[in-house]
Structures are given as structure tokens and as C-alpha cells.
Amino acid sequence: MKKLAAGNWKMNGLAAHMAEIDALAAAHPAPASEVLICPPATLLSRLSDRVSGTPIATGGQDCHPAESGAHTGDTSAAMLADAGASYVILGHSERRADHGETDALIHSKTTASLAAGLTPIVCLGETLAEREAGKTLSIVGTQLRGSVPPDASALVIAYEPVWAIGTGKVPTLDQIGEVHAFLRDTLAAHLTALDATDIRILYGGSVKPTNAAEIFGVPNVDGALVGGASLAAADFGGIIAALDAATYG
Ligand code: PGA
């Protein structure tokens, strides 16, 4: 299974910003790792067309659990797939916080995305208060068991400590390694259709070209989910290069 460098543009990017992806594709024509960009929904179709013929895949940032219907403003998993997506980010902490998303809702979105042929990237992570209270492993374990259907047929997990997202703060390498090993074990006990050793567990939260190499050296880190640094081709390219080097260098 290839390592995965996934970029999450969040609510950033107008049409002109797609030029960054042209630059990324030109600078990294044949990455050893898999490269994914999750643009805002407004750009998904155009960006998917634009990267066709390059190794860059596209994904959505959320989906509705229903296939279609009276849900104003929402986007179904089938619509994301129709717009060219092969992945969808689910349960990002910003959606858990801004939209009150629960594990049960994320579970239903995960099922819907699998039915539409998308690979879900399910996000987990503790707040600073939870870490300081020593609850990190129990929080991410509960999130994983609640958000991921045991019979999932495809899956990527992203461990993203809430306090590390967009803050420039990163857990220690030992802290990252502890959570990723715990998630691998929890997946092994939870999943019935997939082998836990085949699941990519990404780290996310203030990944930059400057810290990527050391993070990718941590056991059980199979790539990154990158926010801010995915917006500029030079930064995201540096992270892709670090992932390639850590894996195959
Ligand atoms: P960041 O965001 O890289 O800007 O910290 C990561 C994420 O939220 O996926």
C-alpha cells in the first residue's frame, strides 16, 4: 500500500488557485507516494478534470449520509464521485466542532461514502483539555469504534490532535507514535473485512516541509493530512518529497 500525502484546502481556493496544482504536478510528475487534494466542493469537478493524466487524485471534504433528496446545501457521496473524487474526508474536527457532528453521524457518512465507491478518510483527535487529562487514547478509541463501520471495505484514518491543527504546535514524536500504535491495535480488534496492517494511518496537524521528515520516521505513520501547507505547491511538494524519501529513500 502506498503512503498517502493528502491536502485539505478547507474553505480556501478560488478558480485561480488551481494553478498551484499545475505547479505541483509539474514539480512531482511521478511521486512514489499517493498524492491527494481535497479542494472546496466548488472546485472539485474542475480540479478533477485538471489533474486527469497526472498522479494527483481528488477528494471531498464532507458528504451527506443520504444518496439524494431534500437536503438543501448538502452534497452526497455519489455527487462527489460523479465530480471525480476518489476519497472523502469525514469527521474532521472542524466539522465536529462547527456542525456538531457525532460519531454516529460520521459512521453513517462512512457507510454512504463506501457505497458510492469512495475511500473515507476518517478523522480522530483529542482536544488539549482531553490530552492534559490523560484521556487521549480513550477519546480516539471511542471515536474510532463509533465512526468506523467494522465491515468497512476501504479506509484511511487521520489522527489529528485538535490543538495541533493550524496552530504550529505538534505533539512529540513519542506522543504521535503512541497514538498511531494504539490506533493500529484498535483497528485490528474492530475491523472484520480489512487487515489493520493495510490501513493507512495519517498524522495531521501543523505538518510542514520542515517537520515532515521526522514525523514520517515515526512507526505506524503512513502519510499526512495537511491543511495550511497544502495550499502552496512548494510547501506541499516538500512534504511529498519527505514522504517519498522516508518510505523509499
Ligand atoms: P493544518 O491542518 O495542517 O493547517 O494544521 C490540518 C488539518 O486540519 O487537516
Keywords, separated by commas or semicolons:
249 residues, binds 2-phosphoglycolic acid, globular, 8-stranded parallel beta barrel
Outline the structure in words:
With 249 residues, the protein is an alpha/beta fold. Helices cover 42% and strands 15% of the residues. The chain is globular, with a radius of gyration of 17 Å. The relative contact order is 0.16. 2-phosphoglycolic acid is lined by residues 8, 160, 165-166, 204-207, 225-229.
Short overview:
The protein is α/β, with parallel strands linked by helices and 249 residues long.
The span between the termini is 16 Å
Our count of helices gives 10
Q: Whole-number average pLDDT?
A: 97
Strand order of the largest sheet: 1-2-3-4-5-6-7-8
Estimated helix fraction: 40-55%
Cα shape: globular
Number of strands: 8
Compute the CA-based radius of gyration.
17 Å
Distinct bound molecules: 2-phosphoglycolic acid
The oligomeric state is: single chain
Uncertain runs are: none
Indicate the structural class: alpha/beta
Strand content: 15-25%
The SSE string, one letter per element, is EHEHEHEHHEHHEHEHEH
Largest sheet: 8 strands, parallel, barrel
